[in-house]
């Protein structure tokens, strides 16, 4: 590609204009996905962390170290075509697990989310449909729990508690409603019953409505029954495939 702007667009691998003179920030498809700034649009509101906002299955740094996982993930994302078929078999959820942190789970989950986003956008246009503004949502469960703790601590200023509370419930509703949702680092070890109930409500709503999710955890799925409860474990494993990541942490080794 002669135009490096293609490196800033999730659609580049699917676009015949990528790398040409027309590949620039005024492209309508680029604006639809990334906004005028390159950090907004449909990709921006998906809430995928900035480090992973342009990660795809093709360029994922985890692909080389997790070949078996990516063989399954490549097959999995091909099922995303079913999002446009009313009577098709439902898209499964995924549970990405490794005992060690930093093996590529969040990277891979982000790549999967970006793949769903691009397939939804391109597929909608091919079918003369208006793409959803937020078909994908990324919920960082640890950060979400931090918001919960922020408005439940003693002696918190009212305005701080209100801001945290509003953001907490906003994220909860977005996670419930998105066509595809990543729930990152779901194996939180210390949580109140109220927080567990809220997390369960997200998973329950998604499973009940046949909405696929991608969970990541440093705990095996079987331990979810101990971390949370049997109800949450049953919901997590419902129509869900488990992929195990091998090796130790690769953090700090990625090229800038």
Structure in a nutshell:
By secondary structure, this protein is α/β, with parallel strands linked by helices. It has nine helices and five strands; from the N terminus they run αααβαβααβαβααβ.
Write the layout of secondary structure elements.
Elements: H1 28-34, H2 41-45, H3 67-77, E1 93-97, H4 105-126, E2 136-140, H5 141-152, H6 158-177, E3 180-184, H7 193-208, E4 213-217, H8 224-227, H9 230-237, E5 240-244
Parallel strand pairs: 1-4, 1-5, 2-3, 3-4
Helix pairs in contact: 5-6, 6-7, 7-9
Search tags:
single chain, 256 residues, Rossmann fold, five-stranded parallel β-sheet, 5 strands, 10% strand, globular, disordered C terminus
Largest sheet: 5 strands, parallel
Query: How many helices?
Result: 9
Q: Over all CA atoms, what is the radius of gyration?
A: 19 Å
CATH topology of the largest domain: Rossmann fold
Q: How far apart, in Å, are the first and last alpha carbons?
A: 20 Å
Percent of residues in helical segments?
40-55%
Count of separate structural domains: 2
Give a written overview of the molecule.
The longest helix has 22 residues. Helix 7 links the parallel strand 3 and strand 4. The C terminus is likely disordered. The protein has 256 residues and is an alpha/beta fold. It has two domains: 39 residues, no CATH class; 199 residues, Rossmann fold, CATH 3.40.50.300. Strands 2-3-4-1-5 form a five-stranded parallel β-sheet, sandwiched between helices. The chain is globular. The protein contains nine helices and five strands; from the N terminus they run H-H-H-E-H-E-H-H-E-H-E-H-H-E. Helix 6 packs parallel to helix 7.
């Amino acid at each position: 590609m002669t135009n490096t702007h293609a490196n800033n667009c999730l659609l580049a691998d699917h676009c015949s204009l990528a790398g040409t003179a027309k590949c620039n920030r005024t492209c309508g498809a680029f604006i639809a996905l990334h906004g005028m700034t390159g950090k907004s649009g449909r990709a921006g509101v998906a809430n995928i962390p900035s480090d992973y906002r342009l990660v795809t299955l093709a360029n994922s740094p985890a692909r080389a170290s997790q070949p078996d996982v990516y063989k399954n993930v490549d097959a999995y994302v091909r099922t995303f075509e079913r999002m446009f078929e009313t009577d098709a078999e439902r898209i499964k959820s995924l549970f990405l697990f490794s005992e060690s942190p930093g093996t590529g789970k969040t990277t891979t989950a982000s790549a999967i989310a970006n793949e769903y986003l691009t397939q939804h956008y391109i597929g909608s246009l091919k079918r003369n449909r208006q793409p959803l503004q937020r078909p994908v949502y990324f919920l960082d469960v640890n950060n979400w729990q931090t918001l919960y703790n922020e408005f439940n601590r003693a002696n918190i200023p009212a305005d701080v508690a209100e801001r945290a509370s509003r953001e907490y419930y906003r994220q909860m509703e977005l996670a419930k409603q998105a066509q595809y949702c990543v729930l990152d680092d779901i194996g939180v070890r210390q949580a109140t019953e109220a927080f567990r109930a809220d997390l369960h409500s997200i998973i329950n709503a998604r499973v009940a409505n046949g909405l696929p999710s991608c969970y990541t955890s440093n705990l095996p799925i079987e331990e979810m029954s101990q971390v949370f409860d049997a109800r949450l474990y049953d919901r997590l494993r419902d129509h869900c495939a488990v992929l195990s990541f091998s090796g130790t942490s690769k953090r700090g080794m990625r090229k800038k």
